[in-house]
Each structure stands twice: as C-alpha cells, then as structure tokens.
Design goal:
five-stranded mixed β-sheet, 20% strand, nine-stranded mixed β-sheet, alpha+beta, Ribosomal Protein S5, domain 2, single chain
C-alpha cells in the first residue's frame, strides 16, 4: 500500500462524528437531486409534468408550468417527438376528435385539406364543439377545449361512450404547438369563430354568420419554432393513417386533398369502406400480392355491455404473421389483453378441432401459436368505454376484462366456422401442419449446430477477421461483399475494434423460406455465428458481440440487392438489431476526382461536378465499380475511418410499413413489386442500371 493511500485512509478515520454526519447529509442531498433529475428525464404521463428543476435542489428552484406552457416546454411528452412523426401527429389528434363524433353516430364525413404553406384544415359534420359558457372556467366551451388540458367530452362518460383519446389533451396540445389556429363551429343555426396565436386566444368566440349545417372546422399552422426539422406534411403518411381510420369505421367517409403548390397528389382521395375491417384484411393481402387459402376473410363480431369486439382474419401462402390490433381505433403496436385473448383462443381452436376430427393423432404434438399463425393476416378492433393503455408509447391495451371476451368470441365463432366449412378448415390446417413440421426440422438443425459448436470448441466462422477489443460496446463488424473487398478491408481496418466478415454471393431470400431453410444456410450461418445472438426464438440481443453491424457492398444494383437481402434477414429473424440501432449501411464513394496532386472523393454525380468545378476542370475521373477496386488505404479513408466515413443508420419508424415493404419487394408476386418500384424510383440515386 502506498504512503498516499495510507494517509487518505487515516484522514478518513480521523473525521469527527459531526463531519461524518455532514458528509452523509451532503451525499443524501446529491442522491435526492440525481433521483429528481432522473424522474424529470423519464416523464411518460402528461399529468406528471408540472415541475422543472434548475440549479440547486430547493423550493425556490421549483418552476410550476401552468396550462399549455408545459406543452411547449416538453412537446415530446405529448406528441412523441418534434420531428416529422410528431408533426403528423398533430393532424391525427384533430381527426381523432372528429372520429369520436363518428363513433357516437353524429359524424359521417371528415375532410382533411393540406393548404398552401402547410396549413392543415379538418372539417367534420358532427355536432360541433359546444359553444355555451363553461361554468367552471367562465369562458366558452370552445376556448376551454382548445386551451385547457384534460378538458373535453372524454371525461366522466357523458360526452362520448367510446373515445380514442386517452388524456383529453389533443386539441389543446395542437393549439399550443401551432403558430396560429382558427376554429369555426356550426351549431344552432349560427357559425361561431375564434382565433388563437401560440395557444393564446386572439379574440373571444363570436358569431360570424348563419347556417343550417352542424360541425367543426379547425385550421392550424404548426409552429416552426417547435418543429425546427420540418413543417412540411407528407401526403403518403396522412393517406395511410386516414385510410386506416376509414377501414376501422365502416361507412365513414374521409377525404384527403392536397391543395398546396406542387401537390403530391392532384385529385382528392376519398376513403369509405362499408365492409370495414373485412375490406382492411383484403387490402393488406392484395397489397402484398399473397395468394389466399380461402375465398373471403373470416369475420365475426360480439357485443357485451359497453364492450365490442370485431375480428377479421385471412390465411395466405406466405410464411409470416401480420396482426394489427386496435382499441377505440388507436393502434396498439405493443399488443395487450385483446391480442392475448385472440392468440390463446386461436391456438386452442386448432388443437381442439384437430383432435375432434382426428386431424391430430393422439401421439402428435400440439400445434403451437407460431404454427397456427403462419400465413395469417388478422385485424382485431375492440371498443370500450374506459380504455387503459400501458407502456412508454401508450401502445398496449391493459383492460383485463377484454381477454376473456375476445377469447370466447374467437373460440366460439371460429370453431363454428370450421365446422360449417370443413374444406376451408382443412386447407388452413394443412398450412399449420407444414409449419409445425418445418419448425421441428429447424429445432433439430439448431440442436445439431449447438452440438457441433460444442465439439469444435469455437463457433466463429473461419473467414472472420476478428478485432482485438472484446467489449461489444466498443467494436464494429463489417459484412463485406466479396473476398477481394474483404481482403482490402482486412488490411485497411483498425484491428483494435473493427472486425471483417467477407460475404460471397447473395444470401437466401428469407421472405420466401421457412426457418428450417434459414438455419444452416451457408451464406447466413457465418453472419449468425459472428454476431453471436442466435436467430428466431433463440435470439438474444444481450449476446451481440459488436455494437455496430455494418453492411458494406458495392454501389451498384447488385450491391443494393445484397443490402436488401441482409436487411430482410435482420428484420424477419433478428429484428432487435434494427430496433435498437445496431445496423448500418456503409456508403463508399462513387468517384475519385483528381487534378495534379489534388484529389477528392464524390458520393454522387452532383458532388462529382462540384469537385470538378472546384478544381477548375480538366480532371481525371475514376468511377469505382466496386469495393475491390480500392486499395486498403483508400477503403479506410473513404469508408471505414470514423473521422471521415459516411454511414446510414437503419432504424424502424413504423413496423407495419416495413413489414409491408419487405413483403412487396422480396415476395413472389411481380405486380406489387413493379408498382412499388415505379412509385419510388424517383428516390433512387447513384445506382448503375
């Protein structure tokens, strides 16, 4: 022990009791402050947002946020983010209010107009926001709804039987985050109007005309001070959401019109589906180009008191499960009690029916949930008076009473359907039995792979050039197209933290294959072994050996295809790699522009022309056809050096859209893929064709 350490220990022992008490008090204060800061950073409920702490911890440092001030201070708590997703959420909040009128039987048409300067206008023919004076606030109910949090017809059960809103903050939050808002209410033979600026009233509610119609019109302009990234709305994003709402509300007409300069869609789009979620299931199946196993979706409904269940399902020839669930028209992306009831009952129906009609023999294994959901498209929509949502994103239904209701509905109705339609039942059962056999084959393949790894004592692939650092959070692996480029990458890399795994040829398209074909595939097995996580039900993100998984392929059509094949594999069998931000796409340059001793790399045709102009013309232009054309030094400085490289991080914003895209691009059907490519070809750059 050094003399310095001995002195420090002696000094600690010599502290008086008073000093020790003071030290403990100071430590407790620091701990309390840290705890409070953590709580502030983790607010996930709007009712909790009432204080911001600055500086030292004390009463004089507590700032109380009143009304809409809290919304502008922490907008992400109310709309998720201030990026494009949060921007579009503003529209959803207003439309959801009109939807609530439709649920109650008062609204039949909702118009959404995208006006110049990205102003949004939402018009409905419901009853209109009440215009009378609110007794508690001594102001018009219109002003209360648009300026007070937790005020509206969604509380107390008297205004709306079913509501998609959880906290009653929608309209007021949109008002708070808007540069300006205008509202017009058509009610009692008059048109009432009022204006707001940054959430504050500009004038009081006044009558501006007469009408024999009813309903509400709201116009607003998102505040660029809040939405600094963009205030431009994407037509396709709004279209997807509004079409979905029309499916969920059979007979409701929703119109979307782009009236901006250079509109993304010239003609008004009208969505109205009398078949409701049955048409929704057919739409999802047709969009992906799957072949259904039966002519029409199987649909059923049940009502018990104030709770209602609507379910529609269709089996097809794909190997994936597509399950969309909703509660009061809110997408429950994390599932919940209604999904649990559906899945449990579905598995029980298959096994009970199979035993009853001798499709499953006494010594056969029971079908699993994965077996009976292969090739399934299902939409579950429940409505209830007091919906309870859980989770950070409020995307999980928590009402326990929905599990037995959904379970009984599915079991009784689907069992009845199978007994009345034995040919359809048999076709679906054959699909489930094939899935069961394939899953058993995959299990045996996994067991064999484990035993082989245990015997060999080293499961890492032979072509892997591993890095020296063993802490996963400090390492990255490059999955490199071709042995030639792999060789250059091995020589050019930083060996301390960069691993290289060359890939030869194109890997299996897992969209067209079951798990038994994926396990043991000679192109994919090295990737799985190198990452260390396993796949499918064995996948464990905590075993990931590298923080960054970088796909590095040539900048041509074949390279883009390899990227797509790998992303399909990750999405279907190792999705947490994407959701937790571990997957990247390397961006090698397309050109090297040289003049004398000067040179520069260009990543697009436009950048190439800029470099030529910068060098005043007469330049030598080298077009890189592949990674293998670069020597190790060039590959390092252009594509692998953290100081100079460009990489695209792959993230999952909308799992539903991603699932649809992979099905279209990588599935068997040509026509959906052609339509997708024709629609999105304008976004493709720098690929030789």
């Amino acid at each position: 022990m050094s003399k310095v350490n001995e002195n420090l220990e002696l000094e600690a022992e010599e502290l008086s009791e008073e000093e020790k008490a003071a030290q403990k008090k100071e430590e407790a204060a620091e701990a309390k402050e840290a705890e409070l800061e953590a709580q502030i950073g983790e607010f996930d409920d709007v009712e909790s947002m009432n204080t911001i702490v600055e500086g030292e911890y004390g009463a004089e440092q507590i700032q109380v946020l009143e009304g809409l001030e809290a919304v502008r201070m922490r907008p992400g708590m109310y709309i998720g983010s201030t990026g494009p997703k949060g921007l579009h959420h503003l529209v959803y909040e207003i439309v959801d209010n009109s939807n609530d009128e439709a649920h109650s039987g008062y609204c039949t048409h909702i118009e959404v107009n995208m006006l110049p300067d990205d102003v949004i206008e939402v018009i409905d023919n419901g009853r209109g926001i009440p215009v009378g004076i609110n007794a508690e606030y001594k102001m018009s109910s219109v002003e209360v709804v648009l300026t007070k949090l937790h005020a509206g017809g969604k509380f107390g059960g008297s205004g709306y039987k079913v509501s998609g809103g959880l906290h009653g903050v929608g309209s007021s939050v949109v008002n708070a985050l808007s540069e300006w808002m205008e509202v017009e209410v058509r009610q009692d033979g008059h048109i009432h109007a009022m204006s707001f600026k940054v959430g504050e009233p500009v004038d009081s509610l006044k009558v501006i005309g007469d009408t024999d119609e009813t309903g509400t019109t709201i116009r607003f302009k998102a505040d660029p001070a809040i939405f600094q990234e963009t205030t431009r709305y994407e037509f396709d994003i709004l279209e997807k959401r509004l079409r979905e709402q029309a499916f969920l509300n059979a007979g409701l007409k929703i119109t979307l019109t782009d009236l901006r300069e250079n509109p993304e869609r010239e003609e008004p789009q009208v969505y109205c589906f009398n078949g409701g979620i049955t048409e929704f299931v057919n739409f999802v199946n047709n969009k992906r180009g799957f072949t259904p196993l039966h002519d029409e979706p199987i649909s059923f409904n049940s009502v018990k008191g104030d709770r209602e269940v609507d379910i529609s399902l269709l089996y097809n020839d794909s190997y994936n499960e597509i399950l969309y669930s909703y509660a009061n028209n809110v997408r429950t992306i994390d599932g919940g009690t209604h999904e649990n009831g559906f899945k449990t009952a579905l598995t029980r129906v298959f096994n009970d029916y199979g035993k009853k009609y001798n499709i499953l023999k006494d010594n056969d294994k029971k079908l699993s949930g994965d077996d009976v959901r292969e090739g399934l498209i299902a939409v579950i929509s429940v409505k209830l008076t007091e919906a309870e949502f859980e989770g950070q994103t409020k995307g999980k239904l928590g009402n326990t009473e929905m599990t037995p209701l959904v379970s009984k509905t599915v079991y009784d109705k689907l069992m009845e359907y199978f007994e009345e339609n034995p040919q359809v039942a048999r076709a679906i059962f054959n699909k489930a039995l094939e899935a069961s056999r394939a899953r058993e084959a995959a299990r045996k393949a996994r067991d064999l792979a484990r035993r082989k790894s245990a015997l060999e004592g080293n499961s890492l692939p032979g072509k892997l050039a591993d890095c020296l650092e063993k802490s996963p959070e400090m390492t990255e692996i490059y999955l490199v197209e071709g042995d030639s480029a792999g060789g250059s990458a091995k020589l050019g890399r930083e060996v301390r933290y960069q691993a290289i795994l060359p890939m030869w040829g194109k890997c299996l398209n897992v969209e067209k294959a079951r798990l038994d074909r994926v396990i043991g595939n000679d192109k994919l097995t090295p990737v799985v072994s190198a990452l260390g996580t396993g796949i499918g039900e064995d996948f464990d993100i905590n075993k990931l050996r590298y923080d960054k998984v970088v796909i590095m392929s040539d900048a041509d059509v074949d390279g883009a295809h390899i990227q797509t094949l790998m992303l399909t594999f990750f999405f279907r069998y190792m999705r947490d790699l994407i959701t937790e931000g571990h997957v990247y796409i390397a961006c090698p340059p397309l050109y090297k522009v040289s003049k004398g001793k000067k040179f520069a790399y260009a990543f697009s045709d436009e950048e190439r022309d800029e470099k030529i102009a910068e060098f005043e013309g007469n330049c030598d232009i080298q077009r890189y056809k592949g990674l293998g054309e670069m020597d190790p030094e060039q590959l390092w400085e252009t594509t692998m050096d953290p100081k100079t490289r460009i990489m695209k991080r792959v993230y999952l914003e909308d799992a539903m859209v991603a699932d649809e895209t992979f099905s279209i691009l990588m599935g068997d059907k040509v026509e959906p893929r052609r339509e997708f490519i024709e629609k999105n070809a304008k976004y493709v750059q720098n690929l030789d064709v």
